[in-house]
Amino acid sequence: MTDLHPFTHDIPADRLPALLRAMPKAELHMHIEGSLEPELIFALAQRNGVAIPYASVEELRRAYAFTNLQSFLDIYYAGASVLLKEQDFYDMAWAYLERAAADNVVRTEMFFDPQTHTARGVAMQTVIDGLHRACGDAEAKLGVSAALILCFLRHLSEEDAFATLEQALPFRDKFIGVGLDSSELGHPPEKFARVFARCRELGFHLVAHAGEEGPPAYVWSALDVLKVERVDHGVQSTKDAALMRRLAQERIPLTVCPLSNLKLCVFPDLAQHNLGQLLDAGLVATVNSDDPAYFGGYMNENFIQTFAATGLTAKHAWQLAANSFEGSFVDAPTKALWMERLGACFAQFAGR
Ligand code: ADE
Ligand code: ZN
């Protein structure tokens, strides 16, 4: 690992949870629809007169027992069906942004899935306006820098993705990039080669889910065919030594989501998660919450549970926070400012 902060050795292990909570960090992989808590799903269902097939918040929460990615996605898309109005999208995003601020997230790059909403007759403008208004308020009222990344659903066709891009282009100043999510197996990155090429021409940042459940070959094609700047998840990369060398050499960030991987049975338990292996191999790995309402934890919970289970230390904490700033889509002076704040936080914990 490079760029070790000099104070990390002075921070005792029992101070680690407090340090993880206090350190400034960026979240680079979360789906805003995955922040819908059961209570808000029920409140919005009532407000909008939408029927949901669960009798209570408790019954809905009990359904969150997933065996793989698809078993989660089925419930996740059903939950999003309560979102109809601009205010609904605002309320959902605002609730997440308040939680992010409480976790000392200073920057968040939030995914949204417009096709989940436009397929139900919700206008693209309704979705983007509500989310974007919450991003503006986050900066003004919470001091959190927030941006949006539009994700194409990979179980749908590339033609559908092109149509979605077309619908979103009138609002292109309100999102900074595009991504690729939903069912990975059987839907390789190559399926979206042309639409990603178009988005590249348009100047959007490019990311894609790859190597969550899918093979290392999907990570290679996300890099070589889609030309992504970051890989979302990417944890299967450890199965391919040449890929690991490439990711480290090119400093391609991996946006890892430990509690998501646990809940979707990508790893049998957190102690066997490969985050430490990724960091020790010099990859720009980061920690993120993915779908926090469904996977049992926002950012700090992901850090605290993963560190407790795997024995990661203060030096890893510093590296993860530094990686999150390096991997974020902000300008260099802003990154430098957040790195200074990170250093000040560690110095305080080291008693300097
Ligand atoms: N959409 C929401 N969460 C996702 C995940 N973990 N993988 C793929 N698509 C998603
Ligand atoms: Zn994801």
Automatic annotation (TrEMBL):
Keywords: Hydrolase, Metal-binding, Nucleotide metabolism, Zinc. PANTHER family: ADENINE DEAMINASE. It is an enzyme of class 3 (hydrolase). Substrate binds at D291. Its cofactor is Zn(2+). Zn(2+) binds at H29, H31, H209, D290. The active site is at E212 (proton donor). Pfam families: A_deaminase (PF00962). It comes from the Bacteria. The record marks H233 as: Important for catalytic activity. This is Adenine deaminase. Its EC number is 3.5.4.2. Binds 1 zinc ion per subunit. Belongs to the metallo-dependent hydrolases superfamily. Adenosine and AMP deaminases family. Adenine deaminase type 2 subfamily. It comes from Variovorax soli. Residues 24-340 form the Adenosine deaminase domain. GO terms for molecular function: hydrolase activity. It catalyses: adenine + H2O + H(+) = hypoxanthine + NH4(+). Catalyzes the hydrolytic deamination of adenine to hypoxanthine. Plays an important role in the purine salvage pathway and in nitrogen catabolism.
